[in-house]
């Protein structure tokens, strides 16, 4: 997606430790016009797939998921990181490790909003090692729902997540894949 | 907003301690069609006010803010609850107390995304005692920007937030104001 790649080149800031910040348009300030282009691009790539619901994870995934959902005309569910008042038998729950934050968190979704046989599209901002994606897939599997595919805004192609998901024949669509990056520049695949 | 009130009556669940859960369409699963009606309603109520940007707070405010922003054609900034890598002189920061969670948290916005003289509309899901609203107003004031108004989806009219904000002549628009609620029912103002 050319407009997204241009924006990443213009505003993305690369930090040591494989970190790229896109706070100016995606993760802190949100460019809603660009987000609409992103939503349309996901719809184009998944329009021939049955999608009942979009699943994402708070907080950064929410904006992308709801704007995209307008094109699919389906509801969004976001997995919660905060402790919920639900009892264990009322929710699907899994652990997700963040290498960036060096922290493992429990995330959960109410059983009311992720149901057997639903066809679920996962949408998220970043794909690095794939920990969040595999965690969300685990929630969908626990619910006996189907993984319709995964839409990612920015894939770090030099980390393992994309390779792991493609090896499992998951329909993965990343709108921008970064092949390599350092303080001098960003190269897309 | 009648459609919203109907949805609250149909799906809202009242718990002891002045808590109402609307997880089925706003705070966990998101009804994007209803959210569009909410966004349009905010636009109707603020369309004669100069708005440069919408400010909200993660996580529940994000979906409402981005859908609304499409009508205003402005960017969204969300205040972050998580610790950021920014140094103190790079961010505006304030404390917000949650009575529901009985917890005070620091929230912050990068100085890059909240600037002098900008006209800022605050959007959030709930207004109870007004702690989040006053916290966001504090961030705007620190940035020497203007508070254009506050748009709230559900105001708990029996708590003090609305009264406090109206006493300060803030342009507050709440799409549904709950006058009273208990396990037996919900009454709107």
- Quickly count the helices of chain A: 6
Structural class of chain A: alpha/beta
User: What is the H/E string of chain A?
Assistant: HEEHEHEHEEEEHEHEE
Do you know the CATH architecture of chain A?
Answer: 3-Layer(aba) Sandwich
Helix-residue proportion of chain A: 25-40%
The value of Rg of chain A in angstroms is 16 Å
The strand line-up of the biggest sheet of chain A is 5-4-8-9-10-11
What is the total domain count of chain A?
Answer: 1
Shape of chain A: globular
Our measurement of the CA-to-CA distance between the termini of chain A, rounded to an integer number of angstroms, reads 12 Å
CATH class of chain A: Alpha Beta
Beta percentage of chain A is 35-45%
Describe the protein's architecture and organization.
Two copies of one chain form a homodimer. Chain A is of the alpha/beta class and about 190 residues long. Chain A has a single domain, classed as 3-Layer(aba) Sandwich (Rossmann fold). In chain A, about 35% of the residues lie in helices and about 35% in strands. In chain A, strands 5-4-8-9-10-11 form a six-stranded mixed β-sheet, sandwiched between helices. Chain A has a two-stranded antiparallel sheet with strand order 1-2. Chain A has a two-stranded antiparallel ribbon with strand order 6-7. In chain A, helix 3 (about 30-45) crosses helix 4. The longest helix of chain A is centred in the N-terminal third of the chain and has 15 residues, at about 30-45. The first copy, chain A, is globular. The termini of chain A are close together. The mean pLDDT of chain A is about 95. At the A-B interface, strand 3, helix 3, helix 4 and strand 5 of A face strand 3, helix 3, helix 4 and strand 5 of B. Strand 3 (about 30) of chain A pairs antiparallel with strand 5 (about 75-80) of chain B, so a sheet runs across the interface.
């Amino acid at each position: 997606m050319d407009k997204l790649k241009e924006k990443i080149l213009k505003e993305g800031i690369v930090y040591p430790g494989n970190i790229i910040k896109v706070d100016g348009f995606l993760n802190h300030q949100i460019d809603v016009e660009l987000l609409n282009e992103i939503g349309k691009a996901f719809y184009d790539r998944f329009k021939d797939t049955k999608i009942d619901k979009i699943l994402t994870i708070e907080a950064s995934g929410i904006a992308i998921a709801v704007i995209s959902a307008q094109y699919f005309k389906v509801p969004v569910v976001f997995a919660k990181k905060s402790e919920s008042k639900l009892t264990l038998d009322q929710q699907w729950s899994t652990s997700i490790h963040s290498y960036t934050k060096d922290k493992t968190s429990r995330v959960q979704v109410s059983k009311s909003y992720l149901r057997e046989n639903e066809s679920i599209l996962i949408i998220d901002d970043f794909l690095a090692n794939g920990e969040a994606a595999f965690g969300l897939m685990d929630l969908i599997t626990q619910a006996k729902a189907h993984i319709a595919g995964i839409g990612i805004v920015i894939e770090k192609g030099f980390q393992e997540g994309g390779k792991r998901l493609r090896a499992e024949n998951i329909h993965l669509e990343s709108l921008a894949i970064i092949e390599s990056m350092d303080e001098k520049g960003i190269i897309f695949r």
